[in-house]
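Justification of resources, computational component.

The compute hours requested in this renewal are based largely on the per-chain cost of generating structure records like the one below. Each record pairs the submitted sequence with a full C-alpha cell output. That output is archived, and it is also reused by downstream analysis tasks.
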Amino acid sequence: MTATTSGRPTVEDTTTDHAADITAIEKLIADVETGYNTNDAELMVSGFTANASAGNAVGMVITGYGSLLEAAERGLEGFLANEYVRYDMGDIGFLRPDVAVAHKVARATTAEGELIDRDPAMVALYVLVKENDRWWVAARHNTPVPKA
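The structure output for this chain reads:
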C-alpha cells in the first residue's frame, strides 16, 4: 500500500506476476458460466469458500456454501432451467498477492450461444482469495443493468 498526495492509500499488489492468477480466476468464472449453462449447480458454485456470501440479482444475500448450492439447485431446476448466459471478464485487480477483485458482465444467450442481449444485462463483482495455491470466491454481488 502506498500513500498518494491526497493522503488516501492506493491498495494494489505490484510485487507479484499475476499472469497465472488471472488465468485461474478466469477459469473459475468460466466454471460458473458452464455450470449455469449446463444446469450443473455443483460446478456453478464449486469455487466458493465454505463461508462465501453472494448477493443475487433481486437483492437477496445468501451466505455459506451449502445455502449457495441449494439456491443454485433450486434456480437451475426451476426458473433458470432453460436460460443461458455468456460472461465476459472485465478488470481483475489484486489488492494483495492473495486478494483479488474482479468484474464480469453477463448477457443472455440462446442455447446455441447466440447473444440475445446486445448490452450487458448484469454486472457482477467478485472478491477472491488465494488459499492453499487455489483461488476461491469469498463474495460475489450481482447488479442488474437497466435497459436503456
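The first helix runs from residue 19 to 37. DSSP finds three helices and eight strands in the chain.
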